[in-house]
Amino acid sequence: MGERTGAWVKGLVGLVTVLLLPALLSAADYPNTPINLIVPYAAGGSTDVAARALAKVSPKRMPQPLVVVNQPGGAGITGRVAVVKAAPDGYALLFGYDSGEDLVTPHTRKIPYDQKGAGLNGTTIPFRGGAEAVTALLGGNTDFSGQVYSEAMPHVKAGRLKVLAVGTRERDPVIPDIPTFIEEGVNVWTFGAIRGIGAPKDTPEPVIGYLEGAVKKITEDPEFHQVMKDLVHPVLFRDRKAFLKNMQDGFDMYGKLIKELNLKLE
C-alpha cells in the first residue's frame, strides 16, 4: 500500500510539472504578439489619452506593441468584463481603475445618489467617457462636471470653461493656484485621476512581474514625461503593492460613505 501511494504521489508531481511547464515557457517568451490594452471608455477622454501615451512610448521598452482598444458601454463595465473573461496570458489588459466603476459600483450596482456627500444639489448624468461629458458641458447641457486636466485644460485656457476647485485633499502642483473643494468650504475630496493596468485573474506571476517592470520603464522615459506634460498629466509610478493599497483605501472610503448615506439598489 505504501509503495502504491508513493508511486501515485510521484505521478501527481510529474503531472503537475507537465501542466505548469507550458505556462512557464509562455511566460519566458512573453510577449511574442501585440498586447491589447482595453480602455473601457470612448476615445478622446483622459483615460484613452493616457493609454495612447503609454502605447506610443512602449515600443522603446517592449518587444511587442501595446494596442489600445476602446470598449465603452455599460458605464465602464463592458470593457472590464471583457478583460475578466479573457485568457490569463497577459495579452488582454485593462487600462483604467480608481474610478466609480472600481470603487463605487462594487458596493451598489446602480448609482442612486445626487452628489449628497458634498451637500451639493444635482443629478448624476452618466456619459461613455470624459470627452462626451466636456462636450455636454460646453453645450450648456450640464451645469458642472468633474474632469481631469487633459479633458478640460484646453477649454480652460481658451476661456470656455472655469475651474472651480480640485477634488484632491491637497492642492495639485500642476495647477497650484486652484483651491481644493475643502478650502472652498465643500467637504468632499477624491483619490484623483489615477490610472492603472489590470490583468485577468490567474495570469502567471512572471508575466505580471514583466509588465510591472516594463510599465515602470515606460513611465520613467523622458519622451513619456514630455507627452504627459503636454497633456497636463503628472506622472508618479506606483508598484503593485502601493497601487493596491490606494485602491483598497478608496474602496473602503466610498463603501463607508454609501453605508452612511443608506444608498441602496433600486
Order of helices and strands: HEHEHEHHHEHHH
Percent helix range: 40-55%
Number of strands: 4
SSE class: alpha/beta
Strand order of the largest sheet: 2-1-3-4
Q: Average pLDDT, to the nearest integer?
A: 75
Looking at the overall shape, the CATH architecture of the domain at 33-105 and 192-260 is 3-Layer(aba) Sandwich
CATH fold topology of the domain at 33-105 and 192-260: D-Maltodextrin-Binding Protein, domain 2
CATH homolog superfamily of the domain at 33-105 and 192-260: Bordetella uptake gene, domain 1
What is the CATH first-level class name of the domain at 33-105 and 192-260? Alpha Beta
- Total helix count? 9
Given as residue ranges, the uncertain stretches (5+ residues, pLDDT < 50) are 1-25, 110-114
Coarse morphology? globular
Span of the ends, CA to CA? 61 Å
The percent range for strand residues is: 5-15%
Describe the overall structure.
- The chain is of the alpha/beta class.
- The protein has a domain at 33-105 and 192-260: D-Maltodextrin-Binding Protein, domain 2 (3-Layer(aba) Sandwich), CATH 3.40.190.
- It has helices at 2-29, 46-57, 77-84, 100-103, 130-138, 149-157, 205-220, 222-230, 240-260; strands at 35-39, 66-70, 92-96, 196-198.
- It has a four-stranded mixed β-sheet with strand order 2-1-3-4, sandwiched between helices.
- Strand 1, helix 2 and strand 2 (66-70) form a beta-alpha-beta unit.
- Helix 2 packs antiparallel against helix 8.
- The longest helix has 28 residues, at 2-29.
- 22% of the residues are buried.
